[in-house]
């Protein structure tokens, strides 16, 4: 069989790959035997320098433990944290001062709007005037001095207005009569 230059190169590459695979095994005793055997046989043009170097690597007892230690090493946390550490010169502005609390007195209570409308009035000669007020569907006939539902009292009638007092707060309110007298 005729070995061409290309075939010799392929065989040498295959032998180098085989030696590399055998030398990279985790078991150092198996690596030593295979390296010595391949060097003694002189496989397909494997150089003697490679075999000697492989024997030296395989015979080193620290070789396997070194690889095992490197495979299981863990980086220190402060080294990892500062590996790509950035420096920021930003200083946060101070917090704004607290806003003083101003206590606002509640507004004074006010009477509700008058619920009454004037329907009319009637005055007999020599008698007091009767005023007719409505709230919803109820009609009240009141005189000056009367109290309506213990809530409003009728105080006076003057200048076209009827003066009513909201009794719970003692606030006076005016109800227009519609005509001035």
Task: Note down, in words, how this protein is organized.
The chain is α+β, with helices and mostly antiparallel strands. The chain is rod-shaped and about 155 Å long. Mean pLDDT is 78; it is low at 30-46. The strands form two sheets. It has a four-stranded antiparallel beta sheet with strand order 4-5-6-7, with no helix packed on it. Strands 1-2-3 form a three-stranded antiparallel beta sheet, with no helix packed on it. The protein is built from five helices and seven strands, in the order H-H-H-H-H-E-E-E-E-E-E-E. The longest helix is centred in the N-terminal third of the chain and has 19 residues, at 5-23. A hairpin with a 7-residue loop joins strand 1 and strand 2 (130-135).
The averaged pLDDT comes out at: 78
User: Biggest β-sheet: count, sense, barrel?
Assistant: 4 strands, antiparallel
The ordered string of helix (H) and strand (E) elements is: HHHHHEEEEEEE
Q: Tell me roughly what share of residues is in helical segments.
A: 25-40%
Question: What gap, in angstroms, lies between the N and C termini?
Answer: 146 Å
- What structural class do the secondary elements suggest? alpha+beta
Strand % is 15-25%
What gyration radius follows from the Cα positions, in whole Å? 57 Å
Strand order, main sheet: write it out: 4-5-6-7
Topology:
Elements: H1 5-23, H2 28-41, H3 48-59, H4 62-71, H5 77-81, E1 117-122, E2 130-135, E3 138-142, E4 147-148, E5 152-158, E6 161-166, E7 171-176
Antiparallel strand pairs: 1-2, 2-3, 4-5, 5-6, 6-7
Helix pairs in contact: 2-3
